[in-house]
């Protein structure tokens, strides 16, 4: 009876499902797009190398204003919402397309907030639910010391991200509200404990989500800079923050390669090609439980493979007399647009489908038949995934995101090496350019090849 | 020992609870309320929903259908005068999770039954657990696995016919009206093999001939090189392609035949379930025929029950969602959810079902049901239910694409879909 007057919600798989639009896209001339994108990236690199004047990527301040809320307070709000969502996950509806916990994590934060952060800068920083509680607890217990976690660099975030990626694409029930609530509570408690032991400054690097958002938001054309209680809103070409960033440390490099590899593997593991490698009939996918070990192995190997490929390309182009880390540290930053761009393109359909469910869930948060937003019955709808115009529009957006990301990556790679001696040569850039062309083709192929899982 | 004290004898448990609460007066009060609550407490049905995973595009329509059917059921007084509740649990379209969901229904949520499973591999993974837990388990998978005897006494399929019956019942009309020399094109795995085997057998029994069987590897996404294998003398091309490359298949088949002569073409709507038949690229299907479990387009002279069902599930005359004409329903199959719910009602009422203790009685009552009449509870049409094989039989439709719409040109008889029993579940123990 509880569900009697519910909105009748629909969808192919929401955040985790990558919907059936592949039927239509297989009839579109995507090959031409892929070739065109590859040529564009190649041409950008060649022209950039010939011109030897990569864009300046300047930035300017738009305005300065007082912070609306101190970070401690906004973080406490985030903590309160986290607790509330865990309670909703544990005791709310079991339907992952109606329960606000899976919808918030998988659609609103993982997909929506990424897209917003790629445009407006790091929006996660202020609402991440640990900073405030960690400061408060440390203040209350009078703790000021640390336990040396900072020395580990991005290693804790790498482990956290790896666990998260495994949970999302390989574990059996990532959207099950109860399972997810337990996982979120466990992770939140772990980070809170470590944060209290180590100090709040560690959180930006220790929590994988904070590390992730800090990385992908660096390509945003708008961002905030903080000075005490004042915020300066900045604007510049996408990448302006990247060129101002310090070179990446080895653990940060590992973290970035993991971001790149995991989201690519999320696309790859559903393709006919991958399923065929596993000896699985792509028309008769036996379910996640049949591929847990294969995909665990696949994820780790794909990460190793991607990292080897990227670092190999950097090593291959290393100018004589330059240390590897001196080139890799700045150059790896140019992969941030690719990580962000592919993430946005890959999850775009999830945003359009899961996003509808999230809005519908807000319309009727307690599954009691409310219509707070005045949405009609059967409001959630996916017709756009089966029309040519809808699929073409989605593909155009994805194409623009992938192509834009790779062109930006090429330009950044030229800019970031501009001050490194003997690094402005064809020999240094050719391997990277080839790799970025390959990544462009691979990314677009992942979005247009048939999938079966 | 302590376990024995709280074994499920309601009156004893109530008494113990009362003693623990410390007063005879209180005991009486609680006991009375408990009895009252039991008789009017909702009947709880667990719906095993393909909410995520590969079945999700079906799952969303099945949820919609179940919710609509539940409203009609409760508005009409529920089951045995009690309200009915559906608890949806996502199984991720995964057999292992499916078994876990069945277990949750039985042990955690104390559901009276589990139902709604579509994908065969999930049915095969879940049904054994339902059998162990003695939970009546109603599937809507079309699979022949129920009637073949592969499952157990607790698993039934009263809401939809199985694929064997569907395929067999197509043959007489196809051979009489479209041609006797048949070439079959099918994906080269179990689903395609079932079609190949059942239809070849039916063609032979009806005086026709399958002159070629073109098996297409499931990984194939372009089909041009297979079409020359279709013999020129083919009179009927039977196709059951599925998967993301279906539109490509139709498009390339159209290019292969061009505007010249082509054989008659007969397919299963499974290929294009939830796909607008008037999509660009599907023009070639004009004039071809399809099996439909339930006609997607509203047919002339449709029954009141059909109209009411369409309105309840929010589907317009073209088979699309009333809120989005591009969002085509899984119309040929989703009636099974509706009809299963009302089959459960019929069985529970016949058994005088009161609660989980009556589960066996309920299955026996289901097995004793011989038929369901066409009407509001069975809008797709009448069903014959075979209690021995736990399988429903019904009427199938053959529709022709005319002006970009599917128009029914033939409805099979009940007998067209019959085949000899392959199992008698009633002889098996519970």
Condensed summary:
The complex is a heterodimer of chains A (453) and B (430). Chain A is mostly helical and 453 residues long.
What would you say this structure looks like, in words?
The complex is a heterodimer of chains A (453) and B (430). Chain A is mainly alpha-helical and 453 residues long. Chain A has helices spanning 22-25, 30-51, 71-91, 100-120, 131-141, 155-169, 177-198, 203-206, 208-216, 240-244, 250-268, 272-277, 292-316, 324-331, 336-346, 348-363, 388-416, 426-448; strands at 59-66, 222-227, 230-236. Helix content of chain A is 60%, strand content 5%. Chain A has a 3-stranded antiparallel sheet, with no helix packed on it. Chain A is globular and about 65 Å long. The longest helix of chain B is centred in the last third of the chain and has 21 residues, at 331-351. In chain B, 38% of the residues lie in helices and 19% in strands. Residues 1-37 of chain B have low confidence and may be disordered. The radius of gyration of chain B is 24 Å and the shape is globular. Chain B has helices at 2-5, 10-21, 24-40, 56-75, 95-108, 120-133, 163-177, 190-205, 246-257, 304-313, 331-351, 359-368; strands spanning 43-49, 84-90, 113-117, 137-139, 155-156, 181-187, 209-216, 236-239, 264-268, 289-292, 320-321, 324-328, 371-372, 383-386, 391-394, 397-402, 405-411. Chain B has 3 domains: 2-40, no CATH class; 43-161 and 333-392, Rossmann fold (3-Layer(aba) Sandwich); 164-292 and 398-410, 3-Layer(aba) Sandwich (Rossmann fold), CATH 3.40.50.2300. Chain B is α/β, with parallel strands linked by helices and 430 residues long. Chains A and B meet through α1 of A and α4, β2, α5, α6 and α9 of B.
